[in-house]
Amino acid sequence: MIKTVLENKEKYQPGLSIDCVIFGFHDNQLKVLLMKTRYDDSWSLPGGFVPVDQDIDQAATTVLRNRTGLDGIFLRQFSTFGRVGRNSANLSKVVLDFYGITEEEGLWYSSRFVTVGYYALVDFFKSAPASDGKSGYAEWVDHNDVPNLIIDHKEILDKALETLRMELNQVPVGYNLLPEKFTVPELQKLYETILGKSLDRRNFLRKITAIGILEKLDEKKSNVAYKAPNLYRFDLEKYEEVLKNGITQGW
Amino acid sequence: MIKTVLENKEKYQPGLSIDCVIFGFHDNQLKVLLMKTRYDDSWSLPGGFVPVDQDIDQAATTVLRNRTGLDGIFLRQFSTFGRVGRNSANLSKVVLDFYGITEEEGLWYSSRFVTVGYYALVDFFKSAPASDGKSGYAEWVDHNDVPNLIIDHKEILDKALETLRMELNQVPVGYNLLPEKFTVPELQKLYETILGKSLDRRNFLRKITAIGILEKLDEKKSNVAYKAPNLYRFDLEKYEEVLKNGITQGW
């Protein structure tokens, strides 16, 4: 994975990296995809560099696929992080030794890297990361139980979560994260899990209904002893429309 | 302004630039601040490079001050643009001649520059740009009458406007853009100008009142012959609060 100065100079945009915050939801759990290195047990976001022949959006997809095996995920750019000295000046001896490169060969990594943050929300049950790689492996970690991360990756993760929560006010969420037919309480649980707080049942029903993306089915949830709740599915045409134009009718 | 390869290599982050989209509002006009070069009459957004010893947010402020003389403006980062080949491969002969540098000295500019976009909304009447510089001058241009811009600057401008319009749904706008005391129709006109469409009067009144940032004064607008409208001012404490937490109470 790691390359020497000269190889990198030709291949990658200098001083620029990509970091991906992949949130995974399944069965009322919100997780985040992290990388654990093999050489020093540190945790980080899946990230990498920008090939000179790739647009940054494309590079983000490539980075994610190369690092984790995940493919076909729609990544949204959310913010760029570029504080002076955000990455450490030099690669540590542990890293140099691990890759068998000299200090000079590692120099390419010593300048400031400005990093473009991308995020996505997927069903982690359907999105098993490739668990193997030379430098490390990817793992789904509960978002409430995130270990120490390298550099400013915690800040990047927090900003992504803030963006995701803000996005709940702007676009519908849920398609591909819930079963095809679901109850309103199940949808509410998704929102509560992302927001990290409980919501008023009536209020939620009123607001979610007002968006107009739910189609009430003539079916009730089975296997429920008492007062079986109604099943719904997304009206995909309206869902797409609201995804495009936003939830708020605006001004 | 333009420097040779070696000077730049030491001073600036390679392959990275900043572009600022400064919207100016005054008296129902929405303008945007553009730079016109002296050597080829091309128009562009005010932009520049990122000094190695500055955070990117700080560099954005520096760029804006150096290029336009505008200072003390709060810039928000909104998106980063990094398509392959977005900037042309080499400086044109006109530019090289203008600055009196050789093609080799200009090489630093020939790689892809990934650019971080920042935007702001200010009162253009209070924010007179410095009209002078070696390479060009800054000018307020009506946002409906933007000339051809270099590279992908039109795309950057459009994305900034889209972000600004989206922001109207999230945070209050108006402080520093309207007189201290204003009427609701004046505030509505501000929203209409930014959104580029007219709004229903009653609907606007209802929505803007619901946000809770307006304080109704015991005064009417003078110099109005008939049915003088009420004057309002922003309740700054609540304004700040909503600015921090967002307009929508959310879920």
TrEMBL record, chains A, B:
Keyword set, alphabetical order: Hydrolase
Ranges of residues in domain NrtR DNA-binding winged helix: 174-234
Top-level taxon of origin: Bacteria
CDD domains referenced in this protein's UniProt entry, alphabetically: NUDIX_NadM_like
GO MF annotation, one: hydrolase activity
The keyword Hydrolase appears for this protein: yes
UniProt-listed Pfam families: WHD_NrtR (PF21906)
Keyword Hydrolase: yes
InterPro entries linked to this entry: NUDIX_hydrolase-like_dom_sf, WH-like_DNA-bd_sf, WH_DNA-bd_sf, WHD_NrtR
Protein name as it appears in the record: NUDIX hydrolase
